[in-house]
Design a protein that fits this description.
Length: 399
Amino acid sequence: MTNRKDEARITCKSYWLLFLVSLKLGLTSFGGPTAHLGYFHESYVRRKQWLDETLYAHLVALAQFLPGPASSQVGMAIGIHRAGLFGGLVAFLGFTMPSVILLIAFAYMYEGISLANAGWIHGLKLVAAAIVAHAILGMAKTLAPDRSRQLLLLVALGVVLLWQTIWTQLIVIVLAALFGLLFLKTDQTQQAQKPFGAGVSKKMGAALLTLFFLLLFLLPLASQATDWKWLAMVDSFYRSGALVFGGGHVVLPLLEEAFVPTNWVSEDAFLAGYGAAQAVPGPLFTFASYLGTVMGGWTWGLMATAAIFLPAFLLVAGALPFSAHMQHSKLRGAVLGMNAAVVGLLVAAFFQPIWQTTVETTQDFLLFAVLFVMVAVWKWAPWIVVCMGIIGGWVLPYF
């Protein structure tokens, strides 16, 4: 029998191995959420054999059902499966840390060297425009394939563009969920999955889900009751992370609405950072690390990172013990409605501010078209497209 020292040594070794495997993925996982899931499958299922195909498919389906960054949530869930709640945190840190460090460094470079008017920064903005346009097309095809959801997309787009308040996006998402709950039909033949909750009891899961909702409703009240700017920032990032359905690109309109109109971040800095986020491996949600650093230095960057990922961690850890009950067809209908609506939000963000502030000349449009073809037709890797955008933005003023 092993004694407590041996058990502690084994536990530390498990955490360290989990961190190293997730860190390798964080350093090499380019290409966005779908590509990340492919990397996870290759590493965790095929090479390490830490879980089987069925369980991996279940975790992917659960992450798609929940709001938040799907690929990061799958990584968290695998960490929980491997080593409990702390294992989920370890897996998250390994996968996320490289892009956090790179984007914080880029924020300091942007601010310290006055890059706002640099040609290559404009090229990064055009890269962001091309990548978001490609994401919109792919998401619209997948998330709004029928007339009902296409109509929902258009209504969401119109409401967000014509009625711009701090509550508009939240109201649109809630109403879209209600519409889906009532009117969108889903496949009734899907078999319910067995509950999965290794390392998380139902009691702990309920506590984590309760904390998620308490923070969602109490942070705005606390922010309004004080004049602490850091708390307002944390509230904005937490709400953005809690309300995102459909992948990392959908966080763009929520963050833009929270920080650009309030002049916390300029449109130029926002778009330059979003373009840079495409060039680094790991989750796109680490764009928050850049924004926080621009607003208040690296400490704010770390706070922003924690705030935007915290809802994802609370939700996936809290939902795992109840995952079998979350396959109900009515709930899936609500998710379908929200997914269609968030495509409309993304289209609105593409028009304002991305298109209006980035594609201003004929030369801009031509470079945008070339970058879009690279992404959407030729399927070039995002980091290569970013490099081409930087080069194009640098030479653009000479034409």
